[in-house]
From TrEMBL:
Its main location: membrane. It comes from the Bacteria. Keywords: Cell membrane, Membrane, Protein transport, Translocation, Transmembrane, Transmembrane helix, Transport. It comes from Moraxella oculi. The chain crosses the membrane at residues 20-39. This is Sec translocon accessory complex subunit YajC.
Length: 109
């Protein structure tokens, strides 16, 4: 009986251990997929939004996060004053602007 046990141990010693790189390869592949499907597109979108916010100017017609539209009448640092109509103006954070509308959009609505 002892003969079989010792031969079994000898066979286990002969089995090669997998390469460390092959063990890490699936994790690298998952990270690469995650990077190209989530991180990179979100980074591009954030850069585009930052460029749009930095390019805001007086007279731009904008749509902002609250769903309201208006025309920028004053920019003061990180805030902008937006005229919703001729009698009402509000102060918003420039980063809350979702998009800059084509000139004349508010008049046509």
């Amino acid at each position: 009986m002892e003969l079989f046990i010792s031969s079994a141990h000898a066979n286990n010693a002969a089995v090669a251990q997998p390469n460390a790189f092959l063990q890490i390869l699936p994790m690298i592949a998952i990270f690469a997929i995650f990077y190209f499907l989530v991180i990179r597109p979100q980074s591009k979108q954030r850069k585009q939004h930052r460029a749009m916010v930095d390019g805001l100017a007086v007279g731009n017609e904008v749509l902002f996060a609250g769903g309201l539209m208006g025309k920028i009448t004053k920019i003061d640092g990180e805030y902008a004053t937006v005229a919703l109509n001729p009698t009402n103006s509000i102060k918003i954070q420039r980063t809350s602007v979702i998009s800059v509308l084509p000139t004349g959009t508010i008049d046509h609505i």
